[in-house]
Amino acid sequence: MLLRKNDAMVVNSENKIELMAPAGNFESLQAALDNGADSVYFGVEQLNMRARASINFTLDDLQEISDRCRAKNVRTYLTLNTIIYDHDLSIVKTLIKKAKEAEITAVIAMDQAVIAIARQEGMEVHISTQINVTNIETLKFYAMFADTIVLSRELSLRQVKKITSQIEKEQIKGPAGRLVEIEIFGHGALCMAVSGKCYMSLHSYNSSANRGACKQNCRKKYTVIDQESGFEMEIDNEYIMSPKDLCTIDILDQVADAGIKVLKIEGRGRAPEYVAKVIRCYRDAIDSITAGTYDKEKVIGWMLELEKVYNRGFWNGYYLGQKLGEWSNGSGSHATQKKVYIGKGVHYFPKAGIGEFKLEAYDLKVGDSILITGPTTGAQELDIKDMYVNDEKGDSASRGDSITLPLDFRIRPSDKLYKIVPAEKPVEGV
Question: Is the pTM of this model over 0.85?
């Protein structure tokens, strides 16, 4: 139920939107946990849509993933949403069995064999956007097997709301006996393909996007040529197949009003600082809607933060009724910041709350922003207020120096230290 109070939107706590974070590795997983994710989704081995874009977890990682998330009451979703061939079935059965043993919450699937195997094992199933559910009758069909359904990315919020209203009106329930929950994508990369189903990479490189091996040739520059005359056709943008990234933080009140239950953040191939920043912003935004404090001023602040990490520019996707994508004006990131590797963790002194690092490149000084990442540390960003250089208090350090910083979190020798700088600014101390 949605209420209006002083022109701000208030959402009953029981209807609070679940924030789902991507996890391509343990660094990103920890970043999601530290920044307020309600659930995480991840791939294991090669049978997922980011098989090539991320490091991916192994079967042996399942229990640790489950344990870390359970400790924070965070749900876990295993993605098995690729095209499945006969020779994959034994692997699928093993993965689902191991996921069940590790108490993974659910399986995200698009192939009917995966759905059937998961149900046979007694696992909860979520329907992937790859199935392209666009109407209530299709939803009713999949409700026989699944408790959560990701709608087609091409639907408008009006169409989404019509579906969620019908679920409520007709009391459409999944196998768990509760009303089917609707999940939509809230932020991250979009492609020109309908709900991710694309054959361009397969055609060009014999590398199937639908098997998690997209070469992203659509993100490159293209020139359109009239084959009869040989003349180049005038186009507004060379990147005519590369949409800007989806961003809904500025329309999140309308998203909430559409009745969705789960907001999915794309990005299993992204760095942990991306996961940390995006999840933190959307966590704040969802909480603001719940509290009735969501407003334009906050939106501006969140947008400035989101622009700091990987993005191709932002648009609202098809949610407000657009039929055609908004195209990016470049092939890479438009992020306003970048990270530069400068050193690694050495030791943490828990009683003093001090972390020691070895600088391996560039300079560092008081006032600089740094990022510390690691499989257990996640992604921790902070500004240097004071530091010791080679055991003496100092304002700056250079390559080869040992530095110590006050930290309220533990670091490990495997952690990496980065300097955060403006994207166009050269790094000092080269």
Answer: yes
pLDDT number for residue 138: 97
What is the distance between the alpha carbons of residues 77 and 62, in angstroms, rounded to a whole number? 11
Contact 313, 219 (CB under 8 A): no
Percentage of the chain lying above the pLDDT 70 cut: 83
- pLDDT tier for residue 4 given thresholds of 50, 70 and 90: very low
- Phi first, then psi: give them for residue 327, nearest 5 degrees: -90, 145
How confident is the prediction for the chain on average, in pLDDT?
88
CATH 2.40.30.10 domain range(s) in the chain: 337-422
Architecture of the domain delimited by 2-191+244-315: Alpha-Beta Barrel (3.20)
Q: How far apart (Å, rounded) are the C-alpha atoms in residues 71 and 21?
A: 16
Contacts (Cβ under 8 Å, ≥6 apart) of 305? 277, 280, 281
Q: Which CATH superfamily is domain 337-422 in?
A: Translation factors (2.40.30.10)
Q: Where are the domain boundaries for CATH 3.20.20.70 in the chain?
A: 2-191+244-315
The DSSP result for 290-309, as a single string, is HHT---HHHHHHHHHHHTTS
